[in-house]
């Protein structure tokens, strides 16, 4: 009933799959590394952030486990010879991630979304990968700096953030659900980000989408500019 | 290995295929296949493409930036889905492992080395599958994924002769390599090749490339040599 891809052609559907594979292969390792493996980032931002939302005593164990899993995933998928040390692997994955960002920027060009004027599954996927890089304030930010040099991708993230997400007065992030036409307080920004990093969204059944009215942020738009730093 | 042969032949570069038991160790990155040119050895598709480009041959020069981005995305899709599915089938599906993979992989070595090496490789592959989340998948789910990938490729190819219309590119070589291998390798079940055969434009695509780039060449039929080396490559 709410299929964002209903109006895509078969070829565009195929392109969606291909770009999602590209994101997972090239961008995801660097994203995992920035969040979970880079020591300064992990200790100062990620771990306290996740630990604050997970009940004790899991908060002592789970972040560490996720960090170890991220590292093992990076090493197993990208760490074979001729890359023998972690620093070489890191250099390679960041190179790949930057190339991936460049490719996305070229593909997006000047259009508002990847397939014209309405958002689709691919836009949601790309947003899910880019928004954490763009908004979260880390000590070590080489990916963010690279992303900021690609103005169309930054504009893409900002558009989606202003249209569909909004900070309430209390500072909790809430998003506009186009399905119910209401604002919903999110469980957690961290949850959204971790959901995006997880497996693919389920394919929804083939029905025409509801027409989404383009949303302009309400005049009393609260503090959306303070989205400069997404904080828990 | 077939995709590299196809790629090099599309660039009109003459090549000779040689099968060696210690091939994995000869390769600088430990991965097959690799090419040996003069006194340089280069392995894996990315570096080989770069190497060939540096020597002045390239298949994707005619593409604009957006098309190049699309080509890279599709190559990742093929690597992500087809390659992982092939690995899964060879090393994680117990029936195939017992009947085909273990004997073939260990065949150049004496007992007990053959068993040890093949178990070691199996353990490595399973660990990788677990890290990317494929370990929990059943064979049906893997075949579903392959089907989805083939559907995407088929939709992208449409009625064109190659993926980017008139000229073959690295993507065509890569897709050809994988699909031809799937279609021609004997496994315990035919389900994988059936999935590909469902898409007639993909089988026509493989046949076209085979005819154009492999059958014109010197006999003992390069296609047969390619098929034999493809069988070995499926196991590497």
Tag the structure with descriptive keywords.
heterodimer; A: 232 residues; mainly alpha; Glutathione S-transferase Yfyf (Class Pi), Chain A, domain 2; globular; disordered C terminus; B: 236 residues; two-stranded antiparallel ribbon; 11 helices; 2 strands; 64% helix; mitochondrion (chain B); membrane (chain B)
Structure description:
The complex is a heterodimer of chains A (232) and B (236). Chain A has helices spanning 10-37, 39-53, 58-78, 86-108, 121-135, 142-148, 151-164, 189-197; strands at residues 165-167, 173-177, 182-185. The longest helix of chain A has 28 residues, at 10-37. Chain A is mainly alpha-helical and 232 residues long. In chain A, helix 5 (121-135) crosses helix 8. A 3-stranded antiparallel beta sheet of chain A has the order 1-2-3. In chain A, 57% of the residues lie in helices and 5% in strands. Mean pLDDT of chain A is 70; it is low at 168-232. Chain A has one domain: Up-down Bundle (Glutathione S-transferase Yfyf (Class Pi), Chain A, domain 2). Chain B has 236 residues and is mainly alpha-helical. Chain B has a domain at 61-162 and 170-215: Glutathione S-transferase Yfyf (Class Pi), Chain A, domain 2. Chain B is 64% helix and 3% strand. Chain B has helices at residues 2-10, 23-26, 45-54, 65-91, 94-106, 113-132, 139-157, 170-184, 191-197, 200-214, 222-234; strands at 34-37, 40-43. A two-stranded antiparallel ribbon of chain B has the order 1-2. In chain B, a hairpin with a 2-residue loop joins strand 1 and strand 2. In chain B, helix 4 (65-91) packs across helix 6 (113-132), helix 4 runs antiparallel to helix 7 and helix 5 (94-106) packs across helix 6 (113-132). Chain B is globular and about 50 Å long. The relative contact order of chain B is 0.15. The model of chain B is unreliable at 217-236 (pLDDT under 50). Chains A and B meet through helix 1, helix 3 and helix 4 of A and helix 4, helix 6 and helix 7 of B.
């Amino acid at each position: 009933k709410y299929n964002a891809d209903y109006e895509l052609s078969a070829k565009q559907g195929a392109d969606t799959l291909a770009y999602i594979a590209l994101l997972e292969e090239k961008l995801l390792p660097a994203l995992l590394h920035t969040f979970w493996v880079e020591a300064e980032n992990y200790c100062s931002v990620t771990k306290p952030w996740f630990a604050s939302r997970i009940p004790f005593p899991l908060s002592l164990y789970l972040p560490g486990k996720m960090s170890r899993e991220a590292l093992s995933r990076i090493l197993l998928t990208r760490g074979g010879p001729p890359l023998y040390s972690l620093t070489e692997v890191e250099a390679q994955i960041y190179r790949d991630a930057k190339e991936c960002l460049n490719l996305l920027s070229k593909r997006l060009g000047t259009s508002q979304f990847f397939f014209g004027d309405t958002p689709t599954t691919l836009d949601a996927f790309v947003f899910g990968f880019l928004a954490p890089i763009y908004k979260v304030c880390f000590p070590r930010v080489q990916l963010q700096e690279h992303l900021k040099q690609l103005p169309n991708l930054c504009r893409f993230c900002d558009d989606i953030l202003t249209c569909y997400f909004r900070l309430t007065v209390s500072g909790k992030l809430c998003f506009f659900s186009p399905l119910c036409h209401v604002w919903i307080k999110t469980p957690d920004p961290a949850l959204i980000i971790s959901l995006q990093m997880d497996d693919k969204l389920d394919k929804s059944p083939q029905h025409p989408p509801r027409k989404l009215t383009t949303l302009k942020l309400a005049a009393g738009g609260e503090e959306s500019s303070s989205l400069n730093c997404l904080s828990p | 290995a077939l995709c590299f042969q196809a790629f090099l032949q599309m660039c009109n570069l003459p090549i000779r295929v040689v099968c060696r038991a210690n091939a994995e160790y000869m390769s600088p990155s430990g991965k097959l296949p690799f090419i040996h040119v003069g006194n340089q050895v280069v392995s894996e598709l990315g570096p080989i493409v770069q190497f060939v480009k540096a020597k002045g041959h390239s298949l994707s020069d005619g593409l604009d930036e957006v098309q190049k981005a699309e080509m890279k995305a599709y190559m990742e899709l093929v690597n992500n889905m087809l390659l992982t599915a092939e690995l899964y089938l060879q090393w994680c599906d117990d029936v195939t492992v017992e009947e085909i993979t273990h004997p073939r992989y260990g065949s150049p070595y004496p007992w007990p080395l053959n068993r040890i090496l093949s178990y070691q490789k199996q353990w490595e592959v399973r660990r990788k599958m677990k890290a990317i989340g494929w370990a929990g998948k059943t064979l049906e789910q893997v075949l579903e994924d392959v089907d989805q990938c083939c559907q995407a490729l088929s939709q992208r190819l449409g009625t064109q002769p190659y993926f980017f219309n008139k000229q073959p590119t690295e993507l065509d070589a890569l897709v050809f390599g994988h699909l031809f291998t799937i279609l021609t390798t004997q496994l315990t079940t035919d389900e994988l090749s059936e999935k590909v055969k469902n898409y007639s434009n993909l089988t026509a695509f493989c046949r076209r490339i085979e005819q154009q780039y492999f059958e014109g060449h010197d006999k003992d039929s390069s296609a047969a040599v390619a098929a034999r080396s493809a069988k070995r490559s499926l196991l590497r």
